[in-house]
Amino acid sequence: MDAPLVVPELQAGPRHRLRPWTLDDLDAVREASTDAYIPLVTSVPSDYTEAEGAAFVRRQWERAAEGIGYSFAIEDLAAGRAVGQIGLWPGVHGRASVGYWVAPSGRGQGAAAAALLALSSWGLTRLRIPRVELHVEPWNTASSRTAERAGFTLEGLLRSWQEVGGERRDMYVYARLA
Fold first, then answer.
1. pTM higher than 0.85, yes or no?
2. 84, 89, 150, 159: least CB-packed within 10 angstroms?
3. What whole-number distance in Å separates Cα of residue 70 and Cα of residue 81?
4. CB–CB of 176/132 below 8 Å?
């Protein structure tokens, strides 16, 4: 087991911050579980119960404790509640991957772009990771725009890159460099 990771709090623009998950964030997990796509590509439960929501939060804690990566709740400061999740997963050869989701009620307010910019900047500077990658399905134009707003560059199409919902899917690869 690697050393436990510390999940800090990071300011993400004027309206959002990134922070560790708490059991008070179950409403965000519940809302995300109702989205048709989020449970397909994350560990958010598709059939939400309070026990499953709490298990999701505990998995986020375990990832840091096991040294696997950093999982943050995206908090809307005005609402005082979590509206999404973003994670940074360091890998080999100086690369890390990042993934995120925003619950339907938190969309359209810049949460994803602010979180992606803050987290990738932190990874590139504070953690000194040379390359942060993001994979986006070609149909997901909102996520592509988010990546570009956060300083990521589209590098190409990875054919049949990942299984989603039982089928192989193409993914665009975006990257941000130190």
1. yes
2. 159
3. 19
4. yes
